[in-house]
Structures are given as C-alpha cells and as structure tokens.
Amino acid sequence: MSKPVAYLNAVSRDRANLLLFNKPRRRAVGRNREFRLLSLIVNRIGTFAATLLFLTTSTQATPANKKAFEKHFGPLLVESQKSCAVCHVREEAHGAESLEDFPHNDFGKKIGALDGKIADRLNTTLQSGPYLDNILLGRRPTENGPNDETLLAKNQKRYDAHRNRYPWKPFEKVNRPAPPEIANTSWPRSEIDRFVAAEHERLGLTPRPETDPQTWLRRVTIDLTGLAPTPEEIRTFTADPNYEKKVDELLASPRYGERWGRHFMDVWRYADWTGYKDDLRESARHIWSWRDWIVESLNEDKTYDRMILEMFAGDELWPGNENTLRATGYLARNFHRDRNQWMDDVVSHTSQAFLGITMGCSKCHDHMYDPFPQTDYYSMRAIFEPYQVRTDRVPGELDVMKAGLPRAYDASLTAKTYLFDRGDERFPNKEQAIPPAIPAALGGDFTIKEIPLPEVAAKPWNRDFVRKERIDERTEAVATAKKELTDLPKDADAEKRKELELHLAAMQAKCDALEAEYAVAGEKPSSDEWKAEATSVFEAQRKAAKLEAEWKSLAAQNKIAKLESDLAAAKKEKDSGKISTMSKALSKAKTDLTTAKKDLTAAEKKMAEKVTTKFEPTEKTYPDKSTGRRTAFAKWLGSKENPLTARVAANHIWKRHFEHGIVPTMNEFGANGREPSHPALLDWLAAEFMTNDWSIKALHKEIVLSATYRMESTPESGNLEKDPDNIYLWRMPTRRMEGEIVRDNLLWVAGRLDTAMGGPDIPNDEAQSSTRRSIYLRHAHEKLVEFVQIFDGPKVSECYAREESIQPHQALALHNSPLTVAAAEKLAEDFSHKENDQAAIEQAFLQLIGRHPREEEAQLCLDFLGESETNRDWQRLMNVLLNHHEFVTVR
Amino acid sequence: MNPDLLRKSRRTFLGDTGMGFTGMALSAMLFRDGKAATKEPVRLDAEPHFPAKAKSVIWIFNIGGVSHLESFDPKPMLNKYAGKTFDETPFAGVENEDEIKKALLDPSKAKREIYKTIMPLQTGYKRYGKSGIEVSDWFPEMGSMADDLTVARGMWTIDNNHGAQLTYHTGRKITEGAFPTIGSWVSYGLGTLNQNLPEFVVLGNPSADCCGAAWTHGASYLGPQHAGVRMKVDPKNPLSFVKSADDKLTSQEQAENFGLLGKLNRLAGIDYPDDAKLQARIKSYELAFQMQSAVPEVMDLEKEHPEIRKMYGLEDDKRRPFGEKCLAARRLVERGVRFVQIFHGYTGNAGAWDSHTKIKDNHSRLANEVDQPVAALIRDLKLRGLLDDTLVVWGSEFGRTPGAEFRKGKLKGDGRDHHPHGFNVVMAGGGTKKGHIYGATDELGFHAVENRHYVTDLHATVLHLMGLDPRALEVPGRKRLEKDFGEVMHGVIA
Fold first, then answer.
1. Does A386 lie in the same domain as A239?
2. Chain B positions in Cβ-Cβ contact with residue A816 (cut-off 8 Å)
3. Which of A54, A201, B297, B316 has the most neighbouring CB atoms within 10 Å?
C-alpha cells in the first residue's frame, strides 16, 4: 500500500478551517528558564517581542502561525486573515521550526538578513516596508493591492490599542497600577470606578444610573450577610441613606461571617466527614470546628495572610492554642484514606484555591501550559508529606468519636517524597527524594526551619483537663465496682462474689496504674525520680493487667455456667428463639474466656519478668518537633511578594459581588485560563488588599461603595448590543441567591430563623425542619441538602465557582417544600390580622422582596385575596410572594 | 442579549404570556429606552425552516472515549501487525506528528505521546444483517440492528483530552468557555411539542466538571430556559418536591397560585425586558406545574409490558440503570420531548470509558451495560413506528489509539490512549440511511481519511434532519465562527 496521502490533504484542509477557531488567548507565560531571562528584554520591547521570543525559545517551537500574529496584532487579524500562510505559503513552510526558518519570501528574507534578536529584527523589518500596512489590511506582508485607508486607520488604531494594552502578568509580583485617566470624571466614587470607566469609554458603553437606595440596600445586605433587609431597615435607610454607615453596620454583623464563610468553604472545599461507622473515608469527624473558625475569623476580620498561616501551620506556630488549631481543619479536611489521593488533593486544591494554578497537571508530566516542571508537583507534595491528622480531646468527652478537635501535625520529621514515573504511584523513583520547595517560576522566599513544640502538642493527654477526666473515669469505675459488690445479696453465689471482688481489685489497680503513669509524666526523663516512678508504673500496670485478666476470666466462666444452665432450660421448653440467642451468647462468652486466659498467661509471664522502667504508655506521645515546612510555605503564600495570592483572593471576592470573576477561570490564572476583563483593576485590587494589610472587610467596603456597585441592573439597548454579557460592567448584574441563601431567607423573612451560631453539623435530612442557617447543615458525600443542591449547591469535591441554572425543580422546591409552607403559614399569621389589606400587602412586599408593590401588583394581590379573605388565602398569597422571581433575585 | 426577546417584539412577549391588560405599564416598557424593540425578530415562530425528517433526538453520550477500533470500525491490520511499531509496517509515518500538532491547534497538546506499538483488537467482529455491517463482539445486540444503523467512521475532533466532551457538544474548546450545546440549539430552534415536559431533557449524570459540568448540556447565551433539564429515573421518587407540603392545597388552588405568580413576575419584568433569567423562571413555573403530573406518569416504567422491560435489560442488575434511561427516553420522545440526552459512564472525572489500562475488561463490561438497552431502544422505536422521526445518536468524545498505551515499558500495555484523529458515531432513524457505512479511517484506524467530519458537522446534520438551518439560527449580538455551523453530512441522510 502506498503511503496514505489522502488524509494529509484532508488534514491540511481541516487545519485551515480550524484556524477560524483560533480565538484570542492569554499571551503565553514563559515556560522555561531561558524564557524568563529573555522576558527581561521583552518588558522593554513589548508584547510583540514576547510573542516571538516565546516562539523561538520554546522547546516545542511551532512555525510562525496565525496565533503568533494574533498575539502580536490583536484580534483584528482573526477576522481578516484566514490562514497561517499570511506570510509563509504552506509548501515553503513545511518542516519549519520557527520564524528563523522562513527566509522563503521577501518578508522572511528581510527578517533573516538582519542581525540581532529575532524580535528586534521583526520589529525593524515591519517598520522598513509596507509590511505592517499590508498585514493590517489583511494581506500577506509582501502582497500588493489597493490601500483602503479607512480600514487601515481603523486597524492601525486597534493594533495600537492591542500593543498598548495593560500587561497582565499574573506570575509576576503585583504592582499597583495608577488608575487610568478618564473623561467622565464625575462618575467615579472609588478608584475602582476609574478602571471600570476606562473600559466603558474604550468600548462606548454608558454606565447605568445609580440605583435607588432601597435596591442598593437589598443588594448590599444580601451580599454581605446573606439575609434580606427588614422593612424596618429599609425604612430607616431610605429615610436617611448613609451608605458608609450601613456598610460598617453590615460588616459588623455576625451574619457576615456566616455569609462569607460559606463562600470560602466553597473555595477551601469544606466537607463533613464521609464514611460508615468506624470507617473514615474522607475529611474528619467534628470538622465543623474548622467551619466555626472560618466564620469567626471572617467576623473578626482576621487578615487573609494570618488566616493562611493558621490554616497551613497553626499547629506549628500556635501549638498551644486550641482555637487556632481549629484552622488546620483545612488540612484535616483533605484526609483521604488513600494517602496518595490525600496528598494529591492537598497539592492540587491548595494550588488552585490560593494560587490559581493547576499544579495537579504536573503530577504526570511537566505542566503543559505553565512553567511548572513535574518536580514542582512533588516539591509541593514534600511540604505536606510529613503531616497527618489526629483528633485531640476536648473538655467533657474522652471519646474522640463523639467529640474532639481534628487537627494537623507533623508525624514524621523525615518523610520522603519520590517522583512517580508519569504520576503512577506504583513507580516511585527512589533513587532521589524530592525536597520541599515552592514553584521556582513564582519566586519568593522559602526558608524551612525546624520548630520545637511545647509539651501540650507532644503530649495532649497530659493537659490538665484530660488528666482529670481520665483519672475521674477510672475513679468512677472503682466506685461502680465497689457499689456492685456492696449491693450483692449476702446469699449470692461465692463465685459471683469472687468475681466482683476481683473486678474491684482490677479497677483499683488500673486506677493506680493511671495515676502512676501521670506521676511519671511530671518527672524529668531519666532522672532518678523518673526511674523510680517509671518502675512503679511498670509494676502497677502488670498488676492491673493480671487482675483484669483474672477478673475477666472468672467473669466469663461464671457467665458460661449460667448460660449453660439457662440453655438447658430453654431446650426443655423448646423455645427456639431463646435457644438461638443463648447459643450465640454462649459462644461469645467462650471466646471471651479464651482471650482472657491468653491475657492471663501473658500477664503472669510479665509478672515473672525483671522490673524495669519500660512501662507501656496508654496514650500516644507525638513528636516534640515539627518540620516547619508548612510554616515556610504559609509564609511564602501569604507574602506580599507572592504574585498570585492576593490576585486570586481579590478575584474570588470580586466574583461574589459581581457574578463573574475578573479572571473568569477562578482556579486557573495560568496560560490555560481565560483572559481577565479588567487586568489592571485586578492588580489594583490585589495591591489595595495588601496595602490594607489583607483586610477582607476593607476590600468589601471599597467595592460596595463604588459607583460600579451602585449602578442599576436595568438594561439599555445600546450597551446590550456592544456587551450583551455585561463583561465590562455597564450595569450591575442580576444574580440569584445561592441555595443556602434561598433557604436561609425562607426562614428569615418569616421570622423563623434561629440565629444561633456554630456547633456540630445538623443532619442534612433535617434541612426542612431545622431553622438554623444552612451553613450549619451537614455537607458531605451522599449527605447533601437536597433543597440546596436543587439551587445549584456546591459539590463536595470542589466548587471554585457556582453556576446558576433555572430548572423546574427549583419551582417545585420553592413552592412545595415544608420550609415554604411553614414560612407562608407564619407570615399569614402576621398579616391576615392586619386591619388594612392594602397596608399589609405593602408590608409583605417590603418584607419578602425588599420593595414596595406597584399599584397593579397590589391590586392583583388584593384580587387574589378576594372579598372573603381567610387566613388560608393569605397563606397562599405569601407562598406566591415567596416564589416571586425577586424573592430569590438580587437586583 | 436574550435572543428569545429578539424573536418577539416586547409587545408580543407580553401578549404571548397572557398579560391582557391594556395600557398597564406597556408604554413604560416599550419606551423605557426611548424606543421600542431594537431589532427585527430573527424568527417569529418555531416552525422548521424546511420539512423535517426527525421530530426528536435521543443523544447518547458515553463518557470517557469509546474505542472505535473495538466497536464499529474493525481494523484487521492491527491484528496482522500486533506488537510491531508503526514504522515496522507498510503504514510507517501514518501518525505524522506535524500534522497532528497542527490539527490539534494547541501546540502544547502535542506533548501527548503517540503510542506506536500496535495493540491487536481486543475482541472479534461479526457481520450482521443484509447490510453486512461489521460490529464488534462487545456489541452483539446493536449488531442485530445493523440494518437500521448508519455508522459514521470519519469523525474527528480537536482536543486530545477530555475537554473534548465539551467540544463534542458545542464544537468549542474547553478553554473558550461555555457555548450553546446541540440540545439547546434544538430547544431554541423548535420549542416543545408537549407543554407538560421540557423540550430538552438530560438523563444520567453529566460528564464531570473538570470537563465542562453543565456546559455539556447548557445553553450559554441562548438563555437558561434552553438548557437541558435534568431528570432522574427513579420510579420511587421521580420528581423531588412533587407534592406540596400543604396537604390541603388542591390542584386548582395551586394553579391559581402559579397564575398569580406568573402575572406578578411578568409585571416585575417591565424594568428588565431583556432578563433571560426572569423569562426562564416564568417558564420553569409553568413547566413545573405540568411536570408534577406528567413526570411521575412518564417515569412510571412499571406500566411497560414485562416483555418490553426485559428487552431493555431491566431484569439484569448490570443493564438496568442504563436500560431504564433508554426506556424513559422512548417514553419522553413519545410524548413530544425534542431532545433527550443520556449520559453513560459518569465517574466524577474523566469517565468510565477512559480505558488507559485493561481496555478489554473495561470496555466489555461497559458495552454489556449499554449494548442491549440501546439496541432495545432502536428496536422498540421501530416497532412503534417512531424510529422514522426519532434520531438516535450514539457516540463519545473521541476514539482510542491503535497503539497500546505503555508506560516506559514497565506496564503491560493493555489499554488505549485518547484518540481524536478518527473515531465513529452511530446513528439510527430520523431520516438517516439504514444499514449504511459512511466515511472511513485509514487502515490502522488512525486518521479519518474519507468523509471526514468535525463534531459540529454532526450538529449540523442533527439540525438539518430536524428541519433547521443552523445559519438561520443566527443570534443577534453573538458572533458565530464558520466552524460552529458545521456542514451537513449529506451522506448519512436517506
């Protein structure tokens, strides 16, 4: 068979067609070290050169193609030029590796003839002939033809605009850009607005007018607290609209932390534990303590860099502070019973949530888009390799299955990380361990220092309350055993009495052993006192073990005797149910006896041994040092030098006020992400955020007081035509409440919301009966709140941005759910007794949808109530208003 | 801008939605911006552009990438040269990496290694029916329907990772973001034949969010009311919150509630005539009301004759989950649903079909889950005379490589990698040819070489069969690229 040629032609044809797909993409971020060096020069030459350097230095250089031209000339060429043969005809281009290889036509020859860097040469060449004009006119550089001056002027303008555009360099340190000069100087209230206005002016958009105070109030109140303003609040504010005071008030409300806590829980992947009975599969029991830390931290406006330190390294930096240790729930949540999965989750989600990079891609190979070699993934993993999760006791409960504090700690100071061949954990390269490091491409300081830990971290069992509760528990056991013995009838079986006597002796011995163990904990190891105490522990423990085994052994024997006689009786009665139960119990008692006897043999053997200081601690002692890797990482992450942390955080905060992130791909700021709409603004926000010492509340305040945030959300046809998706914010976007907030407001507007804060997660199947805020409901794999999920609730595995759908299921949930019906009943109670229907409807509108009804609306409602209005009519009307589009909508 | 709005003047919007009151705020609405509707409607009605062959589509998507080589595109050369590299065969150079790099559009993607050691076919093939179409032994039931199938073997796509799942539904790369999916275009173009059910229904878990999430059944700028409506096939609980917690509420009362709500919502829209979300919400309530009775009815699969249930594999635990979806799909199109999109193989990430290792175990197991139900669906539609105007499309985001996927020789190469350069899609009914093979890959199944079609060509074909011209579905303010429209695959049309 001849070499297949047909497909080649076919592929070529399709390739040409495909170029039409080639939408503008982010300028490539340097992908290797060489590029980084060259980028220094690029800064001076401009975007244009960057493109070419990228092409010529990349290890996977591609022929000069349309993409390169697009990067240089901007999107205008996408429209006007249909193939990469703009300057290189296909046959000539065959086999070419870079622009250097194109001396095939006049243009290429010109480039080739010059000395120096290719970028300079291309620049010089473009300036020397009609080439640039030709390209701008949509022709090959060397083609001749009539000049369309209008087109040329138009494209020249666009070309200039493209070259002068803001240099968005997310992997380079944030520099605060100066707000742009704008014509409409009366509009801005904040520097934010100047960035927004500049885009309006560039695109010919007219910002919508400032919205009325009432609409702004509902918008900002729901945005910051998740709960709609009350009629009283609306009246007070509209009578005296003091915007700044209102914002301060809202930010000071404890509801703020609950509202924004949920946003951060999305980004940080909050999930309650998954598993069955004793089997823990994912996250950690009692992880809600981390949720409470999030809410509290936001409410007290803990700085973002401090939050990072606490979450990643609270156990290293504040090891004695249980409140702070809750923060390491971030790490505890990443627990997965498969350790490799666990480590993968930590690396890939930490990089996405805080840095907006997809380090997970580097697990199997060098990152395909960004300058992160495969080793970067493993270096980051090495930061987390030593850590494990444990549950520390909390006062009042010794059983950590019932209550406790899940927290991170470094279990090993020498944990090694190996690169997996192609990310396959079966093939670690054990020849070389990968040391902990941050991605070199992002720069910054990363210095690891081992951290000594106080006793409280190493010996959590030696905390006062734990000691007291444990000893109390043993003392109580002694008392119980004593009581049982005392209560035993005088004529009781001798064996039973002996059993109870042994029980008491065993309990007493165990209590003594524990007390001795705590006594030794107070001595300096290896001192004479310690040796003496340790010897006593050794003796007390073996004595206790022997007594316990004797007691258990006798108890089992007694039980067997009793069961055997009972069983015989049952057999006589032919009671098959009893026979079965007793046979089972008997079999278990026999097993217990075997175990007890085995224990007894061991205990007796131990009794014969020489007395030493090598007692067996009843509790685990943890390392008294921590690697400090996570502290170093957290410091780097929360440093002002870090190029991404502030940008990514500011983008998340912005998104939750304006529907879209400035970078629309919230977790991807790399080359595979999408272009920011307002790159300079995002840089400004990031800089401002850091200048204000990472205060999230300060950032909110700046945003919600801006003219941008105060605009109406009404349409305007001219703007709609130019920017139908409102990417450039000529109006305030209209958003739907998140599922949790819909549920919260169903409770809130009816006055049914229980504002109690914090505490263990409420079972998800109680979502319709509980009146607590949704943030406190269980959120775990297969334990999700259906009502919230119907309104596009978050996934457990990840949720960097929620999507908004409108489905008939939402209508049914909102109309038919017990929550709505209960709310409507309560509201009907409140309203049906009012004297004046008109006034009641007025109040209901204000309470439920935050505005007064129009005349026609009020009339429709009155008609619905009818002449013979009943409480039930009111109930139905309230249900209707709770289903009003504007109830779930933030205008 | 919300395209639906442009399809109607604002006046007709109000009129259509039952706002009879004259005078009322209409003037305010029409003249708020100083002028009435800004553009002439693009299409005033939802009639097809030309006579339709198909009324409904059942679009079955197998998540993760089905091997074309072991389903509908036999390549004996893979057996002949098993274990040899491409270079050791007469087809040396077939892969042509340069061409691949260019075709994939994304230079970095070319980093994906091309496996050149040929893996033999992991299953046999048989010829079926009069047409003699060869179908692999993993799909015997679909084989038995060969004379009703059209197999398009020349498909190709642009992304060699699972972002192709999105591409398959929108024609765009994942990096470009969300675009209208084929189902949403049908919904937008044709509307519904049954007011009680959504025109675009999604069954099964859609592909994972790493690859597009709702984007594979979303409507993007066509507006949320044209997005797929997810429905569960759970006979015990067919629709959540289907009954009001208020026991006393009668259906009549609920209808009145919804009636008032509709009026209030329309009034609220006066200031927001372009609000696609509001329009979608209004529609969602109207639909929800009807769905309360319609959905439990349509999802009551117990009503089906035991033989029919058996035919769909409902008695087999492995086949039941997918069988139920196929049966539900038939019941949905029977009742006029325009587009039913069924997902198979949801895993939360790449998808079940993604067989980098152990393709034999994996594909044979998955094929067993889908083969009988899909064949039953086609047979059932045919028996009921519904196949003539119902188009069934069965496919996945790409095929799988002729070469065995080796990992530095340490692993036994028993899987196949992603393969976007040539793969197949199977169609039945709806005006497609019967017992027909269309297009071809080369002898190794590497490149599509004959009647090559990009995924949007499939979209164009679907729309064409439904009587729609994609170019006439132009949406004002939205620039569509040439390739978005696709080219109709006339060769598959009867």
1. no
2. 241-246
3. A54
Q: Are residues A386 and A315 in the same domain?
A: yes
A735 — pLDDT class (breaks 50, 70, 90):
very high
Largest Cα–Cα separation, chain B: 82
Q: Are residues A511 and A382 in the same domain?
A: no
Question: What residues of chain A, 28 to 87, have a C-beta less than 8 Å from chain B?
Answer: 58, 60, 62
Query: How many Å lie between the alpha carbon of A247 and the closest alpha carbon of chain B?
Result: 27
Shortest distance, CA A346 to any CA of chain B (angstroms): 17
Residue A586 pLDDT > 60: yes
Q: Is-contact A330 A311, C-beta < 8 A?
A: yes
**A218 is in which domain, residue-wise?**
213-252
What local confidence, expressed as pLDDT, does residue B13 receive? 38
Domain assignment present for residue A601? The answer is: yes
> Which of B263, B292, B450 is facing A860, going by the closest CB pair?
B263
Residue A649 lies in a domain: no
Are both A406 and A484 inside the same structural domain?
no
CB < 8 Å from B in window 4-23 of A:
4, 6-8, 10-12, 14-15, 17-23
pLDDT band (50, 70, 90) for residue A301? very high
Closest CB to A736 among B98, B245, B277: B277
Q: Is residue A15 part of a domain?
A: yes
Backbone angles phi and psi of A564, in degrees to 5: -65, -40
Residue type (1 letter), A512: D
- C-alpha dist (Å) from residue B32 to A210, A444, B26: 16, 55, 10
Pick from A6, A18, A725: CB nearest B158: A18
Distance of alpha carbon B258 from alpha carbon A861, whole angstroms:
13
Instruction: Assess B265–A contact: CB distance below 8 Å, yes or no.
Output: yes
Q: Which of A145, A163, A181 is the last residue of a domain?
A: A163
Read off the pLDDT band of A446 (50, 70, 90). Answer: very high
Among the partner residues B25, B99, B261, nearest to A883 by beta-carbon distance: B261
Are residues A229 and A336 part of one domain? no
Interior angle at CA A400, CA A398 and CA A406, nearest 5:
130
Same-domain check for residues A107 and A243: no
Whether A21 and B25 lie within 8 Å, measured CB to CB: no
Please report whether residue A823 resides in a domain.
yes
pLDDT of A25 > 80? The answer is no
Same domain, A411 and A464: no
Chain A nearest-CA distance from B165, in A, is 17
Higher pLDDT, A423 or B128: B128
Calculate what percentage of chain B has a pLDDT beyond 90. 67
Q: CA nearest B313: which of B362, B237, B359, B379? A: B379
Closest-CA distance of chain B to residue A778, Å: 19
Q: Which among B111, B240, B292 has CB closest to A368?
A: B111
Separation of alpha carbons A509 and A619, rounded Å? 18
Distances in Å between the alpha carbon of A532 and those of A520, A526, A529, A539, B366? 9, 10, 5, 11, 68
Q: Among A68-77, A863-872, A875-884, which is the least confidently predicted range?
A: A68-77
The answer to whether residue A781 neighbours chain B at the CB level (below 8 Å) is no
The ipTM of this complex is 0.85
Residues, chain A? 891
* Count: domains in chain A: 5
Note the pLDDT tens digit of each residue in B171-204. Answer: 998 878 889 999 999 999 888 888 899 999 999 9
Look at residue A760 and tell me whether its pLDDT is greater than 70: yes
Burial degree of A402 (CB within 10 A; 0-12, 13-18, 19+): exposed
pLDDT at A241: 96
Tens of pLDDT, residues B277-292: 999 999 999 999 999 9
Q: Is B288 in contact with A815 (Cβ distance < 8 A)?
A: yes
Query: Do A449 and A487 fall into the same domain?
Result: no
**Predicted pLDDT at A16:** 32
Decide which of A556, A584, A608 is a domain's last residue.
A608
d(CA B264, CA B21): 13
